[in-house]
Every structure is written in C-alpha cells, then in structure tokens.
Amino acid sequence: MNKVKITVLKTTFDAALAAEYGAEGLGPCPMLREGQVFYADYAKPQGLCDEAWKAIYQYVFALAHGAGRELFYFGDWIRKPGVAICSCNDGLRPVIFKLEATGEASALDYEPVR
Predict the structure, then answer these.
(1) Which letter, b or e, does each residue of 55-73 get, where b requires 16 or more Cβ atoms within 10 Å of its Cβ?
(2) Distance CA 80, CA 68 (A)
(3) What are 47-55's contacts with CB under 8 Å, separation 24+?
(4) What pTM was computed for the model?
(5) 3-state secondary structure string across the chain
(6) How confident is the model at residue 112, as a pLDDT?
(7) How far apart are CA 97 and CA 11, in angstroms?
(8) Residues facing residue 96 across a β-bridge
(9) pLDDT band at 44 (very low <50, low <70, confident <90, very high)
(10) Is the pLDDT of residue 73 over 80?
C-alpha cells in the first residue's frame, strides 16, 4: 500500500444557500485552507476534518492500493492516471480536494492491538 497525497484545492461558500439555510455568521470552512497538504493511506490524517474524510476515504483507499495506475471510471471522469478530484459533503461550504497516488510505501506508525 502506498501513501496518497491530499491537497486542498479550493474552499467554497454558497452565500445564497447559506442566507436561506445557514446559521448566523456562517462562512467558508474554518477547518481547512487552500494549499493545505495531507498524506494518507489506511487512516485519516491528523488535522483532516472527519466529515471530509468520510467523503473521500474510498478514493484514498483505491489509490493507495494501486487504482491510480489507470483512469477512474473508464476514463470519463479524470484524464490523469493516479488522480481523483473530490469534495466534502457540506452543501453550503464544500471543500474540493485533489488526491494523488504516490510511490511512497506506507508504514504503520502505531502498534496494532491484537
């Protein structure tokens, strides 16, 4: 299994939807910033939002296990092998991520419980 590079490409905010449905003072995601980078494989990287991880982990897992050698979804989604563009599920302020397969092998950084 290899590590996957996760880059925050864009933080967005839908002001019209937020005005109608959002809490007072809601703005773009306060947890992540454009250009921020994380590395992941089998576990959520420290500092990455739990909800964002739930939305992207299946792509991270696929890339970590070699899916990046070819294009996702028969080549009709992303044109670059080893790359996926995903977003979190926040409908008012979604964050867009670029996931990239790397050649860097993963290693456990903890002692597994048996």
Answers:
(1) bbbebbebbbeebbeebbe
(2) 9
(3) 48/6, 49/88, 49/95, 51/88, 51/89, 51/90, 52/88, 52/95, 52/97, 54/89, 55/86, 55/87, 55/88, 55/89
(4) 0.89
(5) CEEEEEEEEEECCCHHHHHHHCCCCCCCCCCCCCCCEEEECCCCCCCCCHHHHHHHHHHHHHHHCCHHHCCHHHHCCCCCCCEEEEECCCCCCCEEEEEEEEEEECCCCCCCCC
(6) 72
(7) 9
(8) 10, 87
(9) very high
(10) no
Which pLDDT score is estimated for 108?
A: 73
Asked if residues 11 and 97 have their Cβ atoms less than 8 Å apart, the reply is: no
pLDDT of residue 100 exceeding 90 = yes
The two three-digit tokens of residue 61, written as one number: 């897992």
26-43: pLDDT as tens digits? 999 999 999 999 999 888
